[in-house]
Amino acid sequence: MPEGRGHTRLKSLTNLRDVLSVATEFERTARDFYRDLAPKVTKNIRYLVEELAAEEQQHLDLFSGLAERADVEAVLQTEIERPIDDQKFFDFAHLPDLGERPDDQAVLQYALAREHAAMVQYEALAEATPPGTLRDTFRFLANEETKHKNELEVIYDRIVHSGGV
User: Is this model's pTM higher than 0.85 or not?
Assistant: First the structure.
């Protein structure tokens, strides 16, 4: 097939099985990152990092449960438009090295960026996915990530802008 509009369109498509795989890896990477980071951060934010690890585990559990459902299995081959910010979401699989004594501000900035990327990605996936369980799941996750981001912004303001760092 000559490269042209059809080739470009094929490259912009993905199937829901691949989407679920990338999303699962995104959540697994986040869980492991926060879990490993928790003992290194200050007491000011240790509870927060532990909560983030637990939330990412809940998302992993959700994806594992979905992958086992027959009604979801039936739609996993469905092709959808690849979200525009797909690469940004994928980029978060590469974790920063925050060192052995990470700065609270750097941790919070990374967490905020990660939550924002997840929020945008899950919103786009909800729009691109046909009605049903997966769309509902992506909408739920977009809402969850939005809440997490809003909570992190409040904590960031309290800790960073009040002279806590």
Answer: no
* Rounded Cα–Cα distance for residues 144 and 147 (Å): 5
Q: What share of the chain is helix, strand, coil (3-state, %, to 5)?
A: 75, 5, 25
The residue among 78, 36, 88, 34 whose CA lies nearest residue 58 is 34
Angle between helices 16-37 and 104-128 (to 10 degrees): 160
**Residue keyed to tokens 């509870």:** 47
Q: Which two tokens stand for residue 158?
A: 């309290």
pLDDT per residue over 4-45, tens digit each?
443 333 346 678 888 888 888 889 988 998 999 999 999 989
Walk me through the domains of the chain, giving residue ranges and CATH numbers. Answer: 5-160 (1.20.1260.10)
Output DSSP code: residue 93.
Answer: T
Query: Residue 3 carries which DSSP code?
Result: S
Q: Of 125, 25, 17, which is closest to residue 73 (Cα–Cα)?
A: 17
